[in-house]
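Narrative of accomplishments. A recurring question from our advisory board has been how the design workflow behaves on a single, concrete structure rather than in aggregate. To address it, we present the structure tokens for one chain from the evaluation set, followed by the sequence designed for it. No filtering or post-editing was applied between the two.
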């Protein structure tokens, strides 16, 4: 029977109510789609990181100052949440913790900043994220998870070709500064691959992953500054520079990108998440033109698309053939 309300009109049954809710509810996104959106947002933030790595050399801040903002800001904002996770943080295996701490901590940060000061934003945005799939695949092979084949192997070859195109002119001209900068950026990319794999191994939520990275990194950087190993320029820095790097490095890279990337890694896996490198180089090259007045060279215009194509192919999954019914 259909029930009636006090005005005599037919009241909707339970089934029809559920149907109405389904029709009026907004679109539901799958967890993988949400993770993909997180990666796209991370692309934008990482593009800002690459631009700031290049801009640091022209600012009143020093690398140590930017690092303190990068690792200190998330600790202050997330302090109560991290305190509640202290036991889980202490239980992380040392080997996994070192992958995360070294992969995205002080060694990576200083390498990225120094490499950026010797090259350009296009190189930072291309070499660091673009080479991650190749390094991640190497780590997977080393751990016995199989050798890439087919389109994945072709993609890794294209990544290597793209890097060669980017650095070839500087090799021929023996531009020592740019070559050293490229080498340092490749080291930074290898470190980031360690971080990517470590995030997949760790049993922490994104907030806990940020704490595991930032707490020891901030402590090490503060120790280096206090002991005079690394100089600081905070006392004489311009307020606009502090605000810029607080927003980009502290809030953007340290907090937002850390949460988004850790979430995507746990949902999509290390290899699939490294596809972010296919978008980041293009975004950096385009943004560097109006923001840093950088004019892309012919090598950049050719090498970045080749590298980008390689990243896309390296992250394609082979289709498994379904046997036909007999």
């Amino acid at each position: 029977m259909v029930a009636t309300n006090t005005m005599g009109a037919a009241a909707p049954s339970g089934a029809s109510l559920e149907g109405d809710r389904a029709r009026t509810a907004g679109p539901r996104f799958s967890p993988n789609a949400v993770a993909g959106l997180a990666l796209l947002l991370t692309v934008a933030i990482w593009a800002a990181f690459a631009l700031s790595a290049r801009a640091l050399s022209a600012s009143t801040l020093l690398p140590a100052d930017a690092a303190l903002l990068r690792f200190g800001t998330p600790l202050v904002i997330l302090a109560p949440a991290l305190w509640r996770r202290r036991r889980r943080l202490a239980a992380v295996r040392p080997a996994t913790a070192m992958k995360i701490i070294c992969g995205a901590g002080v060694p990576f940060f200083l390498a990225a900043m120094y490499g950026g000061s010797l090259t350009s934003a296009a190189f930072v945005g291309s070499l660091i994220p673009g080479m991650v799939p190749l390094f991640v695949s190497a780590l997977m092979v080393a751990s016995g998870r199989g050798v890439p084949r087919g389109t994945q192997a072709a993609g890794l070859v294209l990544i290597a070709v793209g890097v060669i195109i980017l650095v070839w002119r500087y090799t021929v001209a023996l531009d020592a500064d740019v070559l050293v900068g490229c080498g340092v950026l490749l080291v930074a990319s290898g470190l980031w691959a360690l971080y990517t794999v470590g995030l997949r191994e760790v049993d922490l939520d994104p907030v806990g992953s940020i704490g595991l990275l930032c707490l020891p990194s901030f402590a090490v950087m503060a120790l280096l500054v206090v002991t005079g190993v690394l100089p600081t320029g905070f006392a004489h820095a311009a307020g606009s520079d502090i605000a810029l790097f607080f927003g980009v490095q502290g809030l953007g890279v340290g907090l937002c990108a850390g949460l988004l990337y850790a979430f995507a890694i746990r949902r999509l896996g290390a290899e699939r998440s490294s596809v972010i490198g296919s978008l980041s180089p293009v975004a950096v090259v385009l943004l560097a033109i109006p923001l840093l007045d950088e004019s892309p060279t012919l090598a950049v215009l050719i090498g970045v698309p080749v590298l980008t194509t390689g990243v896309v192919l390296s992250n394609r999954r082979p289709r498994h053939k379904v046997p036909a019914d007999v």
